[in-house]
Amino acid sequence: LCRSIGIGNEKDNPSPGEVVLSPHFPTLLASISDDMPTSLHWVMFVPNILSLCDKEQQSRWLPMCRDWKMIGCYAQTELGHGSNVRGLETTATFVPESEGGGKGGGWRIHSPTLTSMKFWPGTLGRTCNHAMVIARLIDGKGKDRGVHNFLVQTRSMTDHSLMPGVITGDIGPKIGYNNMDNGFARFDNVLIPRRNMAMRFSTVDENGHYSKKKVSDAANKIAYITMMQVRAHIINEAGKALAAACTISIRYSAVRRQGFDANDPESKRELQVIDYKQQQHRLFPLLAASYCFFFTGKKIMRNLNTIEQRIVNGTGTITKTQVGDIHASSSALKSFTTTVAADGIEDCRKACGGHGFLHCSGLPELICSYLQSPTVEGDNQMLPQQVVKVLLKLVQNVKDGNEKAISEWRGCDAGYLVAPVTQMISDQKYNNKCEADSIDSMMNTNVLIKMFKHRASRLLVQVAAQIQEDMLNGSSFQDAWNASLIQMARVSRAHSIYLLFANFLSGIKEEEQKNTIGNDEVQVMTDLLLLFGLYWVEREIGDFLEDSYITAQQAKWVRFAMLAMLKKIRPNAVSLVDGWDISDFRLKSSLGRYDGNVYNAIIESSKKDPLNATEPGPGYKKHLSKLIVDEVGVYTGTISRL
Fold it and tell me: Are 150 and 192 in contact (CB under 8 A)?
């Protein structure tokens, strides 16, 4: 299909003819409305070759990827190791030509233990014929050089049979996402050519001598770019998945009626469920979040692409601070957005009452397919550590008065932290307060963004102080770090909410300047932004009361302001979900149909149940007829069991 309509032939395509790099490919993919077992090929495998392989390697492998002769996956996670990449056990040991390593030497890829088996990589089980295997590089001197990337052929490109020494398969049924063949793989001393090691930034010569190319500190982090790109993709997809759930639940809430109007006792017409404030409070903040995630997803993907191109092409300056910052942003946002989306989709299902439990509602399939996201590419409970590890460097730079580093931070996502952190560290009497003096002033983007800025800064400084204090009291760094993990999660969440709010605000302004949206759309988007902010202030009100940043009266204003925003959004709620333009084909939902013909759709779906294919139903002759006709269940009096 792509070839027939010219997708991949665009002039700006970095690899001519490569459909997966076409700007139109995501749109075509969305129209399929199903999970593709080949998706890791373009999400991780091809980007890995582009980022980590040298020009000669790219010239050999990218044409095969383009022509779909080489279909790959990214094989990092092992049965016994996931987030701790440094603990991976798979080895790639250099074998010189003189010892059977092939011309120029080679690598022996090996799974030395049961727990070293690759386990979970998508596309690995039955689909791919190559894998980008992450393994410990053992050089010609027997020295462990840490994890590197190696291209390993897993199956024949002629008949798809397994290559010698390779055992792969599907890991089995999961909660959802079962179109994807998440796989396992065991490598038994599989020999690959020396040049199958990704060699853009480090090389091993024919004698097994390992060397790193001289590149900037930022370029040394290029291996993380692919993972960050996947996290950016996940952030973007979180908004789409949540948007689909909101579309179903909000449309259904507008159709469903429940309860009579006490203000009009004569009326026999029931009230729309969407008019109940409780229902609005359940759904509208999720709707706001879906738009919020959309704007942030766009921005972080754009920023990552810019950084990657500058590093790969050697154009412009990218600092280690900038790479660390976007790593922190993508980690924090991946953790937060996928948690909100997963919980939000389930809340949308519950908001549809009993009918939400039906498979034909579309929500059970949506939630079960989405539930992998909080775990994949960094568990959501683990990622906050990576966020805080980066942000603590900012705190240290401020303490040290390192103006060069502070200047670099100011141009990053975390730049908003510099001024308040500096004030908090330098002035023990720092006493910032919320500026709101009424309910109306609480519904102000400047007031809310200052609240989020203050909260994130304060929690970060507290974590730094807590670790320092614990160590002064005799704790080891590891114990002090471990004791701060719960607080780190709060910091990461606070950082995420600030970024989401700020990106939504700047996204609205950017679209307004491009005349993509008019005044009416700007107002509605701003209403959603305010609701998003007020909802998260109310939900985590303790963080703002803890240091008296807001008063008890201001906390009440937050709740009243949020009620006012729910009322403002109500007339536009259905239009806002329609604005996502998710077709009925993609929604797969009887409840979320665009035409609102919900009840007919439910009945029609029920008729298609295989249990209704015959009359009487299956099991009647074998079981029910014995009870009803043969009277085997008739009570005939008490019989002794002795």
Answer: yes
Could you give the count of Cα atoms lying within 13 Å of 321 in the half-sphere of its Cβ? 21
- Which position among 377, 469, 510, 540 bears the catalytic label? 377
Q: Of 286, 287, 252, nearest to 272 (Cα)?
A: 252
| Contact indicator for 467, 485 with CB cutoff of 8 Å | no
- E strand intervals along 209-314: 210-212, 257-260, 270-272
d(CA 107, CA 254): 62
The 8-class DSSP code of residue 613 comes to S
Length of the chain: 642
Instruction: Give, in order, the Cα–Cα distances in Å from 217 to each of 145, 162, 413.
Output: 18, 40, 19
Whole-angstrom CA distances from 354 to 287, 349, 351, 389, 438 are 21, 9, 9, 45, 41
- Of 40-49, 201-210, 465-474, where does mean pLDDT reach its minimum? 40-49
pLDDT at 219: 56
Of 274, 272, 284, 299, give the one whose Cα is nearest residue 242. Answer: 284
Look up residue 416 and give its two tokens: 């908003």
Helix axes of 320-351 and 383-400: crossing angle, nearest 10 degrees: 140
Sequence-separated contacts (24+) of 200-205 with Cβ below 8 Å: 200/51, 200/52, 200/53, 200/54, 201/52, 202/145, 202/148, 204/94, 204/105, 204/137, 204/139, 204/140
Supply φ then ψ for residue 171, to 5 degrees.
Answer: -80, -10
pLDDT digits (tens, 9 = 90+) for 580-625: 999 999 999 999 999 999 999 999 999 999 999 889 988 888 899 9
- 615 catalytic? Reply is no
Global pTM? Answer: 0.91
Q: What is the pLDDT of residues 381-408, one digit of tens each?
A: 999 999 999 999 999 999 999 999 999 9
Distance CA 620, CA 629 (A): 11
Range with top average pLDDT, 32-41, 44-53, 228-237, 573-582: 573-582
CA proximity to 333, closest of 239, 457, 225: 239
Enclosing H/E stretch for 185: strand 183-187
Q: Which residues of 419-456 are buried (b: 16+ CB within 10 A; e: fewer)?
A: ebbbbbeeeeebebebebeebeebbbbebbbbbbbbbb
**Contact yes or no for 253/283 (Cβ under 8 A):** yes
Angle at 31 between CA 26 and CA 33, to 5 degrees: 100
Give me the sign of the Cα torsion angle 144, 148, 151, 152.
positive
Report residue 516 as tokens.
Answer: 């993509």
- Is the omega angle on the peptide bond into residue 364 within 30 degrees of 0, that is, cis? no
Report the distance separating Cα 191 and Cα 602, nearest Å.
56
pLDDT digits (tens, 9 = 90+) for 545-570: 999 999 999 999 999 999 999 999 99
